[in-house]
Amino acid sequence: MSDRITQLQEETNLLAGYMCDSVGVLQNCGEGINTEKGKADITLFAKLISDTTSNINLLIDSLPTEKVSADSQYKRLTALLKENEEADKELIKTKKLAERQLELIKSASSHIASTQLKIRTELSSRLS
């Protein structure tokens, strides 16, 4: 729904811009309003304003109309809170598992490094 509200805001801003621009065109035309260019500008802005108004009406019609009761909102928020708590528990489990695996990797890496050092020491003592 927030996306539709954002679109509605954008269309409203666009309509305001077209209306301001059309007033500016009318002021600039002055006496030349009956010229071909003046008529074309007036027709263009009339179409833009009409189309934008139609878009606004469509967006308004697409907004939900039903009222949500406080009880319904409470139930939905409670369900979301429960879902959030379950996700939090799962995240904590995953974090603990990852920490254990990290410790195993560190231990294995340390063991590998010490074994490599031991082998290098033995090789260097044999070669000397």
Helical fraction equals: over 70%
Query: How many angstroms does the end-to-end distance come to?
Result: 78 Å
Class by SSE composition: mainly alpha
Cα Rg? 35 Å
Architecture blueprint of SSEs:
Elements: H1 2-29, H2 36-62, H3 70-127
Kindly describe this structure.
The protein is an all-alpha fold and 128 residues long. The protein is built from three helices and no strands. It has helices at 2-29, 36-62, 70-127. Helix 1 packs antiparallel against helix 2.
What can be said about this structure in brief?
The chain is mostly helical. The protein has helices spanning 2-29, 36-62, 70-127. The protein has three helices and no strands.
Keywords, please?
single chain, mainly alpha, 88% helix
